[in-house]
TrEMBL record:
<feature type="transmembrane region" description="Helical">
    <location>
        <begin position="60"/>
        <end position="77"/>
    </location>
</feature>
<protein>
    <recommendedName>
        <fullName>DUF2157 domain-containing protein</fullName>
    </recommendedName>
</protein>
<feature type="transmembrane region" description="Helical">
    <location>
        <begin position="289"/>
        <end position="308"/>
    </location>
</feature>
<feature type="transmembrane region" description="Helical">
    <location>
        <begin position="203"/>
        <end position="221"/>
    </location>
</feature>
<keyword id="KW-0812">Transmembrane</keyword>
<feature type="transmembrane region" description="Helical">
    <location>
        <begin position="151"/>
        <end position="167"/>
    </location>
</feature>
<feature type="transmembrane region" description="Helical">
    <location>
        <begin position="109"/>
        <end position="131"/>
    </location>
</feature>
<keyword id="KW-0472">Membrane</keyword>
<feature type="transmembrane region" description="Helical">
    <location>
        <begin position="237"/>
        <end position="255"/>
    </location>
</feature>
<keyword id="KW-1133">Transmembrane helix</keyword>
<feature type="transmembrane region" description="Helical">
    <location>
        <begin position="174"/>
        <end position="191"/>
    </location>
</feature>
<feature type="transmembrane region" description="Helical">
    <location>
        <begin position="83"/>
        <end position="102"/>
    </location>
</feature>
<feature type="transmembrane region" description="Helical">
    <location>
        <begin position="267"/>
        <end position="284"/>
    </location>
</feature>
<feature type="transmembrane region" description="Helical">
    <location>
        <begin position="314"/>
        <end position="334"/>
    </location>
</feature>
Length: 358
């Protein structure tokens, strides 16, 4: 069932035309019909990993207008009012625009943009109230300094609640990732307040834990939509997209001690970890982990080629060719590789959380 039909069912329940029980049964009936029409089609849709956040150039046009309007608003108020007041004006404007473009018109890209922007503006507003205008920027940039971590707790908590309220009101899928980011930031601030310098001295472990928590949250939504045909797939996608760079960077940092490309041994470790993460990405049918690690993979290849006396333009060309071939071959053989990886776990409880291989 498409996102549009699901929203229409919700609107019908809100208008009193259908009760929630009847709407749920109707939704189940439609989903069963879709499955009966042929599992091959729905599996192919899952493998495609569709992203529904822009539906036409009209969305792009409105998003450009929103960006220009907010930039003009901030520029007009900057210097004449305190920074916290500027942030409050921006947050209020974003909420009003969300009422128009996210709740009433249901435009995908403008809703995405407004959801992403609301929480930072609202957080800076809270920061100005609790920290003071003169030290707002300093405190925001010293989140892992215990002297400032404690004062960040109220702004982080209220901003996360504000993000949750925005999600409840407008139900934009990327809002789940925004709320998750707020919760993770709040958790890090609380830990740093309770145990000074613990986060600062073990940042890689904390970013890895944050990425893993986001990845698991994404898998929860993926398990509710194995055919990737409802809005749960979009919720999972944005959580995976947020988790990927946190996981990739943290694992490589821990595996190499932060010295990724100093020698051949480090480059081999980077490539090995990238291939391992690629297997996980293929198994769960999410490409975000792959995309986040491509930069590391490419640089590691360059190091190996330089060690093989391929320097300068020849090394760059060789790196780009190998990297491009890897992406093209894996992309074209994605379903074939998934069939191989999924075969050993077919019929096991693992299949309750990952799509079937076509």
């Amino acid at each position: 069932m498409t996102e549009v039909l699901e929203r229409r069912l919700q609107d019908a329940v809100s208008a009193g035309i259908l009760d929630a029980g009847l709407a749920g049964r109707l939704k189940t009936f439609w989903l069963e019909q879709d499955r009966a029409a042929g599992s091959k089609k729905t599996v192919s849709r899952a493998d495609a990993e569709e992203v529904r956040f822009v539906r036409g150039f009209h969305d792009i046009f409105i998003a450009i207008g929103i960006s220009i309007f907010l930039a003009g608003l901030v520029y007009a108020l900057k210097g004449s009012v305190p920074p916290g007041a500027v942030a409050f004006a921006g947050a209020a404007a974003i909420w009003l625009l969300s009422e128009i473009f996210a709740r009433r018109m249901r435009l995908a890209l403008p809703s995405f943009l407004l959801t992403i922007l609301f929480t930072p503006f609202f957080f800076l507003t809270c920061l100005g109230l609790f920290v003071g205008e003169d030290s707002t920027a300093r405190s925001a940039g010293a989140a892992f300094d215990n002297a400032h971590a404690q004062v960040l707790i109220p702004p982080a908590l209220i901003a996360t609640l504000g993000a949750s309220l925005h999600l409840w009101r407008f139900r934009v899928p990327v809002g789940f990732a925004v709320v998750m980011a707020g919760l993770l930031f709040l958790g890090i601030v609380l830990v740093e307040t309770a145990v000074p310098h613990l986060v600062q001295n073990n940042i890689a472990w904390f970013t890895f834990a944050a990425g893993l928590a986001s990845f698991l949250a994404g898998m929860v939504f993926d398990s509710r939509d194995l055919t990737r045909s409802t809005v749960n797939s979009d919720k999972g996608f944005w959580l995976h997209l947020m988790a990927a760079p946190l996981i990739v960077h943290s694992i490589l940092n821990l595996a190499t001690g932060g010295d990724y490309f100093s020698d051949t041994g480090s480059a081999v470790i980077v490539i090995s970890m990238f291939l391992l993460l690629s297997l996980v990405a293929i198994l769960v049918d999410r490409r975000a982990l792959l995309v986040s690690g491509l930069g590391y993979f490419g640089i590691a290849l360059g190091v190996l080629m330089s060690e093989a006396d391929l320097a300068g333009e020849a090394g760059v060309a060789g790196t780009l060719l190998v990297l491009g071939c890897f992406i093209l071959l894996l992309g074209s053989a994605w379903r074939f590789v998934r069939r191989i990886l999924v075969a050993p776990v077919a019929g096991s409880p693992v299949m309750r959380i990952i799509p079937a291989a076509s």
